[in-house]
Design goal:
By secondary structure, this protein is an alpha+beta fold. The chain has a three-stranded antiparallel beta sheet. The protein is globular and about 45 Å long. Helix content is 27%, strand content 27%.
Amino acid sequence: MRLAKALEIMRYGHAHRYRVSYDYREGGIITSSCFPDHTRSPEVESPLSTYEEAVRLATAFALAAPSCYVNICVVSEDFKRVTEVLRPYQ
């Protein structure tokens, strides 16, 4: 185990249960991603510990993001969707 991973576990425990997932559409290509990326840089991007916090962040992102961001939703730590898609691909 790397020291960074051990420090993350000690700092957050099992707090990183939710992420905001989205697809980025550019031309004919769709790329999937999510945030926060606390697994790579927990000291920079804090994990979302509550469902309510994740839904608020996903909703704000869906309202503010340009139309190239689609399929915005909240996913659990195993990437299973836990909310409806807030901005579906059309």
